[in-house]
Amino acid sequence: MQDAKTCPKCGQHMTQGFIADHTYGAVNVSLWVEGAPRASFWKKIKAPAAKSLPVATFRCLGCGFLESYAAAAYGVQR
Ligand SMILES: [Zn+2]
Residue 16 Cα, ligand 1 centroid: separation in angstroms? Predict the structure, then answer.
């Protein structure tokens, strides 16, 4: 999903990206998880897949402001 977004701070064009989550040698896309974080014995924090969405972060080409959106359409493209 590539949306045309305009920076709310300076009015310049914003380009899509994502916040890379480096874990044990792998690179993942950050997830938004519905609800407050809950402790898990094995994973430290529970993150049920049914309540998770990939996060896209748009960066302003003018001032560097970041703005994030969570939606299924922002998942990994094949
Ligand atoms: Zn800006």
Answer: 13
